[in-house]
Amino acid sequence: MAAPELTKADFQSDQETRWCPGCGDYAVLAAVQAFFPELGIPPERIVFVSGIGCAGRFAYYMDTYGMHGIHGRGPALATGLAAARDDLSIWVVTGDGDALSIGGNHLIHALRRNVPIKILLFNNQIYGLTKGQASPTSELGKVTKSTPFGSIDGPFNPVSLALGAEATFVARTIDTDKQHLPMVLRAAAAHEGAALVEIYQNCPVFNDGAFDALRDKKRGAENRIYLEHGEPIRGVVRDAEGALRIGGEGEPVIHDAHREDPSYAFALSRLSSSPDGPTPIGIFRDVRRPVSGRDLARQLAAARAAADDASLDALMRAGDTWTIS
């Protein structure tokens, strides 16, 4: 008997969606619910894990399994779930404060270990839920309730951070781009290991207009530098010293998202220090590497096959102390 065809309605929960009017989270939720039927995975085999912040409510609005965890621990919870249930599609929804502040260590190690989870990082460059403090991605000089004289801390570039952690899939997109956002989500879903997608997301209350240079129709057409594998990167050249830069004389650059050396993707991520001008958008890196958990299972199976199963099991259950000679 063929499985029933899934629709957007199958992924919409009965909970009232409650974010501030104009919040970019609405657009991301709609895009996720619309594209998930394409995966052909029934809702009961999908899990959304979230931490603390406005993005934390996302799990309530998906009619799948879900867990609203504590601050920054989404990747850790998802890692445990992935270790126990390799039959599930596991997604983490987090914000720039949740993921890059208290959750930074969990995030980079989930990426380093290539845990098979998909991480959607909503970046609005502010703490929204707690009413407008500077976040780890707030720009230098940002005046907020916690930085009344302007932030003196250099911000994280989430894409650069993920690439520095050797993430195998790293991408960036925009909340209101109805074509690009689903395309990036599809690619992340198809990736076998850990995938991180940074989503520029507008906070209309505490940081309105932060991404207008990219979200605005006219300005966005000028400033979005789309990354498409195998295609020339508009406006980006390699200069005489081999460095990538925007504009000027140099050799045109053909995008290679599958390049093993992450330094190329890292160089792309450093072309813009803030999203108020020309900024790369798309898949920076998409490579294959052993997936955490799967190789361990194969190693254990091989060890059991090579050893006497009965004696190995007896050793594992022998007691609290072992004697090694």
UniProtKB/TrEMBL annotation:
Specify the superkingdom.
Bacteria
User: What is any Pfam family matched here?
Assistant: TPP_enzyme_C
Q: Does the keyword Ribosomal protein apply?
A: no
Which residues does UniProt call coiled coil? Answer: none
Entry annotated with the keyword Oxidoreductase: yes
Any idea where the Thiamine pyrophosphate enzyme TPP-binding domain is? 60-199
Query: Which keywords does this Swiss-Prot/TrEMBL entry list?
Result: Oxidoreductase
PANTHER family from the xrefs? Answer: 2-OXOGLUTARATE OXIDOREDUCTASE SUBUNIT KORB (PTHR48084:SF4), 2-OXOGLUTARATE OXIDOREDUCTASE SUBUNIT KORB-RELATED (PTHR48084)
Protein known as = 2-oxoacid:ferredoxin oxidoreductase subunit beta
Q: What species was this sequence derived from? A: Solirubrobacter deserti
